[in-house]
């Protein structure tokens, strides 16, 4: 049976919004390209928003059949309008000043006759830095909840997010609206990628039923963007040695515990208050709960109890 990560990549396990969290220690772009390669075989078009690399770099290595389905929205070449590249000259150029959502760019570059599309964003970090995390979350929510969308079906959205660039509140906000989050961690190995993982992936997947699945697997992506999944060996078959707790009563000159014979002798001791109860005709059964407790009071000689004046013996 294929692993959950493999099922998500192949499309056997549905997920509307996938967020890949990488860091400077391990890049998530190979996994992003692997997902893009798989998406091209399931949809008619893949709209790729590029803010971290140029379209030429991103498309390098893909087959011509994959590149023919990819439409790049270039947010890398001139996002701040410093180079003077105007929109009419190259209508795929994205400027941060005009970026309010992703759906409007998809609508303006839609090909007629397309039935299904997918969206890939590489990556969300520059948009969050130059715009805001609120705009990003709103734009992603608009894509996933396309009730007023008259275009083709958006089958899947895949985003790359650099977790070490933002604070916890920003990454948590983006991951909150995602159905699948892939947290990548580095894995040091010099073995071939078919034998050892190049990264560890902590996967959090939320199904439509509301069930949340958490798994940890290793992964590798080769030059043809094929995915290899490995079971996590860092937590498997780990023997935990339990240290023997020292006995604080081991080296004492006296004994703090009772032997069984001493315990029985202790239970058979008749306490002083039981004699008073036996004197009044109430025998005590040790260990019995048949009778409720009673209090017996014997007045002393100095007691001067007067019902008319209970405080008569007080010296005020």
- Rg over CA atoms, rounded to whole Å, is 37 Å
The total of beta strands comes to: 9
**Unreliable residue stretches:** 236-242
Major sheet? 9 strands, mixed
Structural class by sheet pairing and helices = alpha/beta
What number of structural domains do the residues give?
Answer: 2
Overall shape: elongated
Oligomer: single chain
State the helix count.
10
Mean pLDDT, rounded to whole units?
Answer: 83
What would CATH call the architecture of the largest domain? 3-Layer(aba) Sandwich
* Portion in helices: 10-25%
Strand content: 15-25%
Model description:
The structure is a single chain. The chain is an alpha/beta fold. It has helices spanning 4-10, 29-39, 55-59, 64-67, 103-108, 125-130, 133-144, 168-176, 260-267, 272-279; strands at 17-22, 45-50, 70-74, 116-122, 153-162, 180-186, 199-206, 212-221, 227-231. Residues 236-242 have low confidence and may be disordered. Helices cover 24% and strands 20% of the residues. The longest helix is centred in the middle third of the chain and has 12 residues, at 133-144. Strands 3-2-4-5-1-6-7-8-9 form a 9-stranded mixed sheet, with helices on both faces. It has 10 helices and 9 strands. A hairpin with a 5-residue loop joins strand 7 and strand 8. It folds into 2 domains: 8-231, 3-Layer(aba) Sandwich (Rossmann fold); 261-298, no CATH class. The chain starts with a helix and ends in a 37-residue tail after the last helix. Belongs to the ELP5 family.
């Amino acid at each position: 049976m294929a692993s959950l990560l493999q099922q998500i990549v192949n499309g056997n396990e549905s997920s509307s919004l996938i967020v890949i969290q990488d860091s400077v220690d391990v890049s998530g772009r190979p996994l992003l390209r692997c997902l893009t390669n798989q998406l091209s075989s399931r949809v008619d078009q893949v709209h790729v928003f590029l803010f971290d690399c140029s379209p030429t770099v991103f498309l390098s290595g893909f087959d011509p059949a994959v590149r023919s389905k990819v439409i790049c929205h270039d947010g890398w070449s001139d996002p701040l309008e410093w180079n003077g590249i105007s929109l009419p000259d190259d209508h795929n150029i994205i400027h941060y000043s005009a970026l309010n959502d992703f759906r409007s760019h998809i609508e303006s570059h839609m090909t007629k006759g397309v039935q299904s599309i997918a969206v890939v964003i590489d990556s969300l970090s520059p948009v969050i830095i130059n715009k805001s995390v609120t705009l990003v979350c709103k734009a992603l929510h608009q894509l996933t909840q396309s009730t007023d969308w008259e275009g083709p079906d958006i089958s899947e959205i895949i985003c790359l997010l650099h977790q070490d660039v933002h604070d916890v509140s920003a990454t948590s906000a983006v991951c909150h609206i995602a159905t699948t989050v892939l947290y990548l961690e580095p894995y040091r190995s010099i073995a071939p990628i078919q034998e050892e993982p190049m990264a560890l992936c902590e996967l959090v997947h939320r199904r439509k039923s509301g069930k949340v699945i958490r798994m940890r697997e290793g992964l590798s992506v080769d030059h043809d963007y094929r995915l290899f999944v490995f079971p996590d060996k860092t937590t498997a078959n780990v023997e935990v040695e339990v240290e023997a707790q020292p006995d604080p009563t081991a080296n004492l000159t006296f004994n703090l515990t009772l032997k069984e014979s001493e315990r029985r002798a202790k239970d058979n001791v008749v306490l002083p208050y039981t004699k008073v109860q036996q004197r009044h005709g109430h025998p005590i059964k040790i260990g019995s709960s048949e009778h409720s407790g009673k209090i017996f009071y014997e007045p002393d000689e100095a007691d001067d109890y007067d019902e008319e004046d209970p405080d008569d013996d007080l010296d005020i």
